[in-house]
Amino acid sequence: MDIKHIEETFSEVSKTLGWAVDKRIALAVTNIYLSRGKAFDAEVHEAVVGVIKKNEGWTSPLRSHLLHVAAAFMAAKEEDVESSLKLINRNQQELNNAGFWKTSYTYLAALLMKKPEEADRARKLYGEMKKHHKFLTSNEDIPYAVLLGSREGSLEERAETMNVYYRDLREQGFSMGNDLQWLSQIMTFDSPVYDPEMVGRVLAIHQFFKEEKIKIRAAQYPVLGFLAVMRADGETLRGIVENTRELEGNKIFRWYKDVAFSTAVQQALNDTIDAQEISAMTFSTSLETLMQAQQAAMMVSINAAVISSTNSSSGS
């Protein structure tokens, strides 16, 4: 892991995004560029931001708290920006047509969709997930429903397997809630069929970090799922521990230690991709996209809370 490269990229991203943008969004944007192996270019990024602002209405999440995350996704794709934006809006419209309310999460899911036709399977999987967790399943699960709905296999079985994984881990002391639900969803990435070994891998990885004094908060549960699906070995995990400690000691991450951990994991995934054959790259890229979706979703939640708090204060 090249700490200097991360520092330089973050510095350029922060300067371009400006002081008013939360540093965690700057970190999320930095990770999107780094994980794609794409150098951050301020002019290119700002040009994409310009296209979004020109084409999106004032109420569009793409124009507000998703602006720079969306711009990074689009710039990193190396596709025509106008066409990419049109596809995002088509995807978002299809998600609405399939029965999802228009929210920041449908736009985030639309960013990750390859084609509008994926919306129907996403909605069906979401419905199956809701059967098991009626109150827990919410808008925040839509990006996961999109990415996992496009995987092969029975949607009913995938949702059932998610539920069993959730119960298994709950019995092992994991905290119940959205984060555990996301972890259980990611665990089905490989297959909708229940696999006790997957549970064993998650528990072993969690224990490894615990013994290394790397605190895994509930918000970081999904990361354990990425590592389990990637079958991260001891060498990879040790590398993540070393990189996490190094990043935590860096001034950039001093106040965002949870982001230091996820950044170290993303760098480990990059190294794994580099070592793999081309046939495995699509799999790894999908996982990375899922990880970035989770990080971006976290930023959306933070910003929504800030906006809500600001509105409440101004209204009181």
Structure characterization notes:
This protein has 316 residues and is mainly α. It has one domain. Helix 5 packs across helix 7 and helix 6 runs antiparallel to helix 15. The radius of gyration is 19 Å and the shape is globular. The model has no long low-confidence stretch (mean pLDDT 88). It comes from Planococcus notacanthi. InterPro entries: DUF4003. This is DUF4003 family protein.
Brief description of this entry?
The protein has 316 residues and is mostly helical.
Report the radius of gyration as a whole number of Å. 19 Å
Helix-strand pattern, N to C? Answer: HHHHHHHHHHHHHHH
Helix coverage percent of residues?
A: over 70%
Number of H- or I-type helical stretches: 15
Low-confidence stretches: none
Q: Supply the number of structural domains.
A: 1
User: Quick check: average pLDDT?
Assistant: 88
User: What is the strand tally?
Assistant: 0
Major sheet attributes: none
Strand content: under 5%
Query: What structural category characterises the helix and strand content?
Result: mainly alpha
What's the overall geometry? globular
InterPro entries: DUF4003 (IPR025062)
Protein name: DUF4003 family protein
Pfam family, one: DUF4003
Per-chain topology:
Elements lengths: L2 H15 L5 H13 L6 H14 L11 H11 L3 H17 L6 H9 L5 H15 L9 H8 L5 H17 L6 H9 L9 H16 L9 H9 L4 H15 L8 H19 L2 H38 L1
Helix pairs in contact: 1-2, 2-4, 2-14, 2-15, 3-4, 5-6, 5-7, 6-8, 6-15, 7-8, 7-9, 9-10, 10-12, 11-12, 13-14, 14-15
